[in-house]
Amino acid sequence: MHERVTDEPSRVVRASREIEAPAERIFELIADPARQPGWDGNDNLAESEPGQRVHAVGDVFTTTLTNGWVRENHIVEFEEARRMAWRPSEQGKRPPGHLWRWELNPVGETRTAVTHTYDWSDLDPDDTMRNARARSMTADKLAASLENLAKAAELPQS
């Protein structure tokens, strides 16, 4: 068997951790875009208007990034309290090929394994600007979002 050697970094970045909170509570923080900037570990999200809670594949929510750009986020995977994934795009344009995914797997009534994935394998390889930005997304940045999400979800709920 021959091993393929390449200097191309993986186009799928993933981080996981367990959070001491029920999946439903964690999912509410993810599925409500207005809450996402509060736990984003990438310093990328500035704000999302309230009232955009995601409910199904085909939903679209908008987010303003810290650089002022507005992104439409097209929901492509959705299972309440278990999985949500979206493909961002510039307003009015087709998604260029990257995907953000959240997967929640209850470990017990009050503990959940959470996996956060950034997949840019469908980006056009000739789009050098987007590929350069995609390469800068590391597992450490995804883990920072997971850490912040854990802190938000583990707080006593009022």
Short recap of the structure:
By secondary structure, the chain is of the alpha+beta class. It has helices spanning 23-31, 128-135, 139-154; strands at 12-19, 45-47, 60-65, 70-79, 83-90, 99-106, 112-119.
Characterise this structure.
By secondary structure, this protein is an alpha+beta fold. The protein has a single domain, classed as Alpha-D-Glucose-1,6-Bisphosphate, Chain A, domain 4. Helices cover 21% and strands 32% of the residues. It is built from 3 helices and 7 strands, in the order βαββββββαα. The chain has helices at residues 23-31, 128-135, 139-154; strands spanning 12-19, 45-47, 60-65, 70-79, 83-90, 99-106, 112-119. It has a 7-stranded antiparallel β-sheet with strand order 1-7-6-5-4-3-2, with helices on one face. A hairpin with a 3-residue loop joins strand 4 and strand 5 (83-90). The longest helix has 16 residues, at 139-154. The protein starts with 11 loop residues before the first strand and ends with a helix.
